[in-house]
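hi support,

uploading two proteins for the ticket. first:
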Amino acid sequence: MKRVAIIGAGPCGLGQLCAFAAAKAAGSDIPEVVCYEKQSDWGGLWNYTWRTGTGAHGEPVHSSMYRYLWSNGPKECLEFADYPFEEHFGKPIPSFPPRGVLADYIRGRADKSGMRDCVRFGTEVRYVCWDAEREKFVLITDELQSGGNRSELFDNVIVATGHFSVPNVPHFDGIETFTGRALHAHDFRDAAQFTGQDVLVVGASYSAEDIALQCHKYGAKSVTMTYRTGAMGFKWPETMDERPLVQRFDGRVAHFKDGTSKEFNALILCTGYLHHFPFLEDALRLHTGNRLYPPALYKGVVFEKNPRLIYLGMQDQYYTFTMFDAQAWYARDVVMGRTALPSAAAMAEDIASWVAREEALEDPYQEIDFQADYMRDLLAVVDYPKFDVDLTVAAFKEWEHHKIDDITAYRDKAFRSPCTGTTAPLPSVPWLSAMDDSLESFVNNVDG
């Protein structure tokens, strides 16, 4: 029997497990599937931990999740087509859930799959290489609790580790002299610790936007965001502002490119993450930055240099869970021989066409259309349950407009489910005032 290894049991790995479960439920014989997860439970980044740096067994902490995170996009745009929110919660809920609500939803769908026995928890993959003679992958793993290790052979390997766990940390002149608190977004856990402080956030993307708003919400005295290429340009509250890139530090004083300077208590680097796969031999590693279509991946998933290797979720993302599912269903069909791959030349040509199209994109609205077209390309050839992709495109674009109108209130809007057609209820407590982010509080936070 063919053996398939999945590395990671976060949303990507769980999507892959659900894809195999769906095929099994439909009467197909599936390969032997083994999923490796170094954490003690599935959920990936959604497993919040107070820990930073290293975990209980000395391994690097994977999660970049912070305590008061709320979805920064409509939940309707990430809704599992085979497990709508209404099925999980038993009723419609508002469109922008907090961390714990989304984590509960992810785990509910995972539990429904019946694939938990396929997951080896507390097991870290240390090394993967390709044995050309046996035409198999060799996986070497460590069991973190016992310290035992083993070597196994697999026909296919699916990398589902994500790419938001290894910080990209730039250097700034004089940063060694900064006497306040300095950390990367990966280690940010609780905005309340910055109450009453002047905070500098380096970055101009989604994590910078959200962490800056978190600090504002929980009472920071001021929040300044500094950008390299362009400001986010939202209508920020009066205690928030944007400045060109910081050039140097002198103690707690940051000096900016526009000649201004300001003293700060804390520095948070929202400077992105690295695609980092130290457990793979170099010939198998994906080398890319954060982009909508990574080169070297056919259909965004199949590794061009060795098509037995598959990567999930390596894109910069508007779509998340549903894109991971579309990829997982396609990957399953490739692994099971349901979908035949074209020649190497044809794969290269297809990759090049997508990459060229991505490089011509000019704004977020074009990027949304691009990623939606990528989704449609995958969904057209798999049996993933149908949902209204056009509705999600419209929702993403409306969401962008809401952010422009009021960056502190866009989470107070409601969207329609592409799976059930139900419009979400409005929250009775606006996000800026909602300090209780528990599941019970949120599902009952409904206007009317």
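and the second one:
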Amino acid sequence: MSIVGLLTFANFNDVKAQDQPAAEATEQVAEATEQAADEAVAATEAVEETAPAAEETTKSFHQVLKEKYIQGGAGWMTPVLLCLIFGMALIIERILYLNMATTNVKKLLNGIEENVKGGNYEGAKELCRNTRGPVASIFYQGLDRVDQGLENVEKSVTSYGGVQMARLENNLTWIGLFIALAPSFGFLGTVVGMVQAFDDIEVAGDISPTVVAGGMKVALLTTIGGLIVAIILQIFYNYILTKIESLVDQMEDGSISFMDILVKYHK
């Protein structure tokens, strides 16, 4: 019996010794699985946290402008925006008018010369009536006074040329006004923002950046907005001036050639 007991106890110890590594291995696998699950959850949370940041970096240009407009304060950004709207409306009107006023002066002069050469002044006047632009209008006024003498024709061409030049420059004063107003409103917003910042400092009794940030942001954004609007309007304004100068040169050169034709063929 003693021998049987010893053998049984030895077998039991062997089985226990074999089961212990297996249990340890099972615990290690469970710990590894739990660690992997924790890492997966952490990665998911990191992705969720970075998603809003990624959305912020992919904002459209329109959204950025809208945010800056709100941050700058609607009370000061609205006048700047109105300057841009009204200024661009006048600019578009002037550009369309000037493009329609452009005339092929050489072709028009050739047609007038052919008619005047044959004594057909009515045909020359009809040609001017059917041609758009200030140059054709000036020529028509001159042809309408041919019977009064070349001296009166020259005076008529000169006088009506001044009238047409004034029409070309119509609304330029208003465009210049909006160019001046846009940065003025921006600078006014800057001054008001600075006053707001000092008021915040006085109330808080502290000059920390967080106290003055709001007023400074209004000041800077309104200034930037006003300057951007003024730059945009100024570029188009200079383009319009260049276009007007080109048309005025056409009017002057065409008037000289027109008078030469009348002197050559008028009897």
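thanks. also noticed: The chain has two domains: 1-58, 61-267.
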